[in-house]
Design a protein that fits this description.
alpha+beta, Aminopeptidase, 2 domains, four-stranded antiparallel beta sheet, 5 helices, 11 strands, 22% helix, disordered C terminus
Length: 255
Amino acid sequence: MTLASIVPPERLGDWLASLSNLETFWTKRPLEARWDEGLHCLAARVLYRGRPATYTLADADAPAAIPEPCFEARLPHAVLPEGPAPPHRSAALLYFWRPPGSPLAGNPEVEVEAAESPGEVAEAAVLAERVQRSSWRMYFPPQPGVHTVFIARLRGEPVAAAYYNRLSFNIDYGVHVARPYWRRRIGSRLLGEILRYAAERGDPWVSVVRVLGVKRPRPGDAAATAFYAANRPAARLRVYRLGGRTVFTRQACNR
């Protein structure tokens, strides 16, 4: 399955812009963008280190299928199914579900609440911070008007949190469970509620992005990948930051 089979090609530029708040190596806000049907590639101009730069996002089913012209951009990228990887500098997990999906059965003792209004989001953010700092030692605040904040409670205690981006249909920063509560099917329960919420809204997909370590795995990479994969996504993709054409060429991808 390719990216264009999930996100219509004519929407890819807007979709990329809606993910730009994540500020990862590949989620850039395009100054302009167009889909090249012949190359099966999104070609764009983005700001990179404060200056305009050419950007490509090739949608291919194998490394050898990445079109040669896509390597010519200042910032060349490719989206591929899980499997053989091209030579790359950065990589990210990109999974999609078709709401309501069929995730694993969650912990029935967990109750999930959703906060949408600015006041509710501000209150939920306090709980989300506690969960995130326990889960991955960092905290990213939600954006009122953009995020619906989901809080999962076990016997009244906030134990998991997630932000659903109503513009991109992405679970921004992923599903987080406080460390003392890992492996209790709490994350699957929370993901299931997000998928039901998206289905009720009529959203066409739900996605999650996670940047992965290249030289060495980041803490939690394996556990996060296993969790998302186990919850039966409709598409399991990887996004790669390729090098410049003089460094990584299509010929290199054929090796």
